[in-house]
Amino acid sequence: MKLHFSQADLAEGVNIVLKAVPSKTTMSILECILIDATSGEIRLTANDMELGIETVVKGTIEEHGKVALDAKIFSDIVRKLPNSIVTIDSDDRDLTVITCEKAKFDIPGRNAEEFAALPMIDKNDHISLSQFSLKEVIRQTIFSIAPNENNKLMTGELFEIRNGILKVVSLDGHRIAIRNLELKESCSDRKVVVPGKTLNEISKILSGEMDDQVLIYFDYNYLLFEFGRTTVLSRLIDGEYFRIDQMLSSDYDTKVILNRQAFISSIDRATLLVRENDKMPVILDIRDEVMDLQINTALGSMDEETAIVKTGKDIVIGFNPKFLLDALRVIDDEEVSLYFINAKAPCFIRDDDGKYIYLILPVNIR
Amino acid sequence: MKLHFSQADLAEGVNIVLKAVPSKTTMSILECILIDATSGEIRLTANDMELGIETVVKGTIEEHGKVALDAKIFSDIVRKLPNSIVTIDSDDRDLTVITCEKAKFDIPGRNAEEFAALPMIDKNDHISLSQFSLKEVIRQTIFSIAPNENNKLMTGELFEIRNGILKVVSLDGHRIAIRNLELKESCSDRKVVVPGKTLNEISKILSGEMDDQVLIYFDYNYLLFEFGRTTVLSRLIDGEYFRIDQMLSSDYDTKVILNRQAFISSIDRATLLVRENDKMPVILDIRDEVMDLQINTALGSMDEETAIVKTGKDIVIGFNPKFLLDALRVIDDEEVSLYFINAKAPCFIRDDDGKYIYLILPVNIR
Questions:
Q1: Which chain B residues are closer than 8 Å to A103 by Cβ?
Q2: pTM (predicted TM-score)
Q3: Which of A295, B5, B203, B210 could form a disulfide linkage to B138, CB 3.0–4.6 angstroms apart?
């Protein structure tokens, strides 16, 4: 196999597929990037068996073939080469020579046949979104998946399509994040749970542009994202997702409207007095026109008043400050509405258009 | 004590003295910043007994007094306060209230009398440098001090004044870095060893401006840096520094002139094939007009040719690539000259004006 690329094109392609290279694995072939130039185009592939990424790189094929190269060494080399023409030349024993200007690297390759090819997917049913929307909806929900694997379903996000609406849900037992997105084209109703890792990695390679589209194909066990010259294939998480509808309620006894940024800054300051691993709640003392935010820890105490618009009863309620911050930071509105029932019932942060709902359980402060 | 500051002024002052707060100490009072407003100005001080920093902060004294506050909490609070007027109010029991707009923090303070005051220094003999020159000369030498304390003298840098020249030297047993700086004013000859930690910290708070001056005062056990409203006091390292003059030689059998940036890029690429903790040398094969840089590791091999101007004998010599990179990166010249005697003798990188000498020991490649 002998190929020529511009260093920039090759570096871009390598950087995309690198996201699917596992950091730890017992199958050393998965630590490789597959370069496949057996057909008319040059494809790079990485695959950790849960997540696979394939991208087509511009380049010239002087001699067809394929080879698997250690991802770390290959990507390091490509990144540090001068911005010039890069040639990759592999022989029958997979010995690979990478040259660029006067630099020449000799590295051992691996037999491409050992590499686990991505499964073929049935490309019937799909939805389409802008890269911007997908990247945003991931950012706005990913923080409330569970970090550990105790409950596999909590490590993923529900993608539910019903009546032309894509609903994305994540929850970790203390809070729920819900985002609703209107789809432009119709699609049959669907309900899948996508691994959080997939969403994290894909959001790093999405352009975030309004004008760039992503197609998402649904297959029995897989989800396929297609955008630009890149394909991302992810295994789905098995099982039935939590019934969140019964956890939501539109009743409330207290409604508070306040400036989002001022609320964030105030919580931010309060958390200065919280040492890591300490779980001190912030206490919101909500009265007419004013909310007093208080915290009291071994390091000292802090309180700060914020102007609010309140309807309904006064309430004193405690929260994990991180949970409030996580939700407030991904909302774009200048003002947010908070809904409370009592000091033991969840608080809802939601807009009037039904675009988002963030549910947060309070902390017992007695 | 009751004081008023602008948040920006206070944050700047706190940030400066914070550099002298030890990260680990058995004396908890040293984890504090002293606020002293007993006289007409407000001084912040931190002191880890090796390094002390004091700075005067603009502010209004409503009530004189002093207090010591935990540096971490105090600096975190000040940093996160809104850009407005900050009031610090301490009572007789050192309980301290920090207010800014509607935010109010209550934190316990410590008795200022427990704080270890900075020793008084005899301010007779001094030199003056621009902040730019001092910051540069530290950057250009600090990398070759020894990282561990096996030999205390190697963890510091020699500051030697002789005939109106400041010579700064660092060495770690494998290499030596020497910089010479002409002083504008005369000063009596001196030889002191300054702790590397002091130099690292001071270089973070120097402005780096050509027009800002630093005065350096010499006392028996201490060095005092004075610039702007800030004073940095450092204990010196005891003992006689290494006699480096006898390690230097101006004889050579091979001289090479090459483009510094091209050489750096080439070594940079070669080190891609070196795994951490591996100690593989790069080999320079120097012939007429061309230098072939080679490396050979378990991960693969690389070679790259660089155009050079050579006088004298051909030579093949190996180096720890990091040592070459460290020296080359802090030289500003577009072209550098390398001097060799044989494959077992040190290599010198030096300019014709005597501003810098970098000595690097070779690695045995047989």
A1: 266, 269, 302-304
A2: 0.89
A3: B203
